[in-house]
Specification:
Blueprint lengths: L3 E4 L2 E4 L4 E7 L8 E7 L6 E6 L6 E3 L7 E6 L4 E6 L8 E8 L14 E2 L3 E6 L1
Parallel strand pairs: 2-11
Antiparallel strand pairs: 1-3, 3-8, 4-5, 4-9, 5-6, 7-8, 9-10, 9-11
Length: 125
């Protein structure tokens, strides 16, 4: 199985940037598709970005497209989310998630098998 630990969250002014990291355990990290999700108070957990097991395909929610970039370094067992031009609406707990082969759309929360504990991102105005 996979254990995931997020880091890099914090407080940033609107327009600023943060880079989140997700450190994964396990010898099969490269076989997992990885996603970032976020959850704001009172809202459902929503899809942010995902990257295929090979790193060759990336997917983004419309709300972050052009501002966020997901990447992975399989040698380091790490997935990143570079967040630029942050907005107050981006404030949420950000979760890293992993899944094996799946026929589900990349943004389906229930298709992911493993989740990190989350890291808080707060964007102030």
């Amino acid at each position: 199985q996979v254990q995931l630990v997020e880091s890099g969250g914090g407080l940033v002014q609107a327009g600023g940037s943060l880079r989140l990291s997700c450190a994964a355990s396990g010898r099969t990290f490269s076989s997992y598709g990885m996603g970032w999700f976020r959850q704001a108070p009172g809202k459902e957990r929503e899809f942010v970005a995902a990257i295929s097991w090979s790193g060759g395909n990336t997917y983004y929610a419309d709300s972050v497209k052009g501002r966020f970039t997901i990447s992975r370094d399989n040698a380091k067992n790490t997935v990143y989310l570079q967040m630029n031009s942050l907005k107050p609406e981006d404030t949420a707990v950000y979760y890293c998630a992993a899944r094996g082969a799946s026929s589900s759309w990349y943004g389906v929360v229930s298709s992911y098998d493993y989740w990190g504990q989350g890291t808080q991102v707060t964007v102030s105005s």
